[in-house]
Design a protein that fits this description.
Largest sheet: 8 strands, parallel, barrel
CATH topology of the largest domain: TIM Barrel
CATH architecture of the largest domain: Alpha-Beta Barrel
Oligomer: single chain
C-alpha cells in the first residue's frame, strides 16, 4: 500500500500491532506490518533482552516501542522513590485487596514481594536508554497524555518518530503543538486507556483539528479495529493507518494464557467496561470479579490514583495469571486484561502472520466493494 505511514517506515501495510509479547511484534513485522512492543511493565534488563531478540528475528525491519510516561500522576508521586510510593499506599486499600483475594481462595501472603512494580522518573529513563540503543526501533509511543518534553527531545535526537494516544480532539491539538509526529486517535471501543468518543467520530475530528495546526502530523485510527474492512473504513475516514491491540491477544504467539484465551473467545462486545481498577485511570478491560470489586456498589475504598493502583494490581495479576493456568477457579474469576469491544468479532486462535494476511485480503475486498459502488 502507498500512504504516509508505509512510506515513513518502509512497511507494506499501514497496520501497527501493539503487544506485550515480543513474538507477536516480530511476527507482524515480518509479515509486512509493524509491531510495537509494550514496555511499561518490564525491567530494563528484560527489555534489552526482548529488543535484542526482536532485532535478530526481523532482519533489519523497523518496529516500535510503547511506554507509559505520564506528564503527571497525582501531582507529586512521580518524584518519589519506589519505596516512598509503596509507603504512601493507604492500609485501607491493601486491606481491601487482601479481602478480595481471600474471597477467591487466594492467600495474600503469596504476593512475594507484595509490591514490586516501579514507576519513577529514574525507572522511566532507564527504559528509554535501552530503547535508544536499538537502531531498528523507529517509533516510540506514549499512552498517557502529552509526553514530557525530555521524552520528545530524546526520541528526535535518536531519529525516532514520536507517537501519542489521544481520546479527544483537544488532546490531539495539545499533542501536535508539543511536537508529536503521529497521533493515535483511540476511540471509546479500544482496550486499555481510552476516552468516551467513538472511533468513527473521533478519527475525522482529530484529522481535521491536526491538519489546521501541523498537516505533516500523521493520524492512526484505533479502537475496536480487528479486521481489514475496518482498516479500510479508517483509511476512508482519512487516517494514515490503524493501531490494533485486542486482535493479537487471540494469536498463537500471544502472552495470554490458554485459560484466559477461552474467556476471550466466549466474550461478546458487551463483556468489557471502562474501569480504574488496574491502573488508577479509566481503561477498558474484560469484566471480571476484580473489576466488580472496585465498582462503587462493592462498598470498598475504590481504586487509587495512578501509580498507586498499578502498584496494587500488577503483583496481584502476576499471581492470578499463574494460578489461573492451573485451573484455580477463584483466579479465573478474577482474571482479566485490557480488551477492546472488538473482542466480540474474534472467535478462534490464529497465527499472527495469518491475521496480518487476512487484514490485507479483507482490506482489498472492502476496497473493491467501495469501488463497485461508484458509477462508471
Amino acid at each position: 500500500m502507498k500512504n504516509r505511514i508505509c512510506e515513513t517506515f518502509g512497511i507494506e501495510l499501514p497496520l501497527l500491532a501493539f503487544s506485550h509479547q515480543r513474538d507477536v511484534v516480530a511476527a507482524v513485522t515480518n509479515a509486512g506490518g509493524m509491531g510495537v512492543l509494550g514496555c511499561s511493565i518490564i525491567t530494563p534488563e528484560d527489555l534489552e533482552a526482548d529488543l535484542s531478540w526482536i532485532d535478530e528475528q526481523t532482519g533489519g525491519k523497523p518496529y516500535g516501542c510503547d511506554v507509559i510516561i505520564a506528564g503527571k500522576y497525582d501531582g507529586k508521586t512521580e518524584h518519589r522513590t519506589h519505596e516512598e510510593q509503596v509507603a504512601a499506599i493507604p492500609q485501607e486499600a491493601l486491606a481491601w485487596r487482601d479481602k478480595v483475594l481471600r474471597e477467591h481462595d487466594i492467600d495474600p501472603a503469596l504476593l512475594n514481594p507484595p509490591l514490586e512494580f516501579q514507576i519513577t522518573e529514574d525507572a522511566n529513563q532507564k527504559l528509554l536508554d535501552v530503547i535508544w540503543r536499538h537502531e531498528q526501533v523507529k517509533l516510540v509511543a506514549n499512552a498517557l497524555g502529552v509526553p514530557p518534553q525530555f521524552f520528545i527531545d530524546q526520541a528526535h535526537e535518536h531519529g525516532l518518530k514520536v507517537g501519542a494516544l489521544v481520546g479527544a480532539k483537544e488532546h490531539a491539538v495539545k499533542q501536535a503543538q508539543a511536537g508529536v509526529d503521529i497521533i493515535i486517535a483511540q476511540g471509546h471501543e479500544a482496550g486499555g486507556h481510552t476516552g468516551e468518543i467513538s472511533t468513527l467520530v473521533l478519527v475525522p475530528e482529530v484529522i481535521a483539528a491536526v491538519e489546521r495546526i501541523r498537516p505533516e502530523v500523521m493520524v492512526l485510527a484505533a479502537g475496536g479495529i480487528v479486521t481489514g474492512r475496518q482498516m479500510a473504513a479508517a483509511i476512508a475516514l482519512g487516517a494514515d493507518g490503524v493501531w490494533c491491540g485486542t486482535v493479537w491477544l487471540l494469536t498463537e504467539e500471544s502472552e495470554t494464557n490458554p485459560v484466559i484465551k477461552q474467556k476471550y473467545i466466549a466474550a461478546s462486545s458487551r463483556d468489557t467496561l471502562r474501569s480504574r481498577s488496574r491502573t488508577g485511570k479509566p481503561s477498558r478491560q474484560l469484566k471480571s470479579d476484580w473489576t466488580a470489586a472496585y465498582e462503587p456498589e462493592a462498598g470498598g475504598p475504590g481504586p487509587l490514583p495512578m501509580p498507586g493502583q498499578r502498584l496494587i494490581a500488577e503483583p496481584v495479576f502476576k499471581l492470578v495469571d499463574k494460578l489461573a493456568q492451573t485451573g484455580h477457579e477463584g483466579a479465573i474469576a478474577l482474571e482479566n486484561y485490557f480488551v477492546g469491544q472488538g473482542i466480540g468479532l474474534l472467535d478462534q486462535v490464529k497465527p499472527a502472520k495469518q491475521v496480518v494476511y487476512e487484514f490485507a485480503e479483507d482490506y482489498l475486498a472492502a476496497a473493491e466493494r467501495l469501488a463497485a459502488s461508484l458509477d462508471d
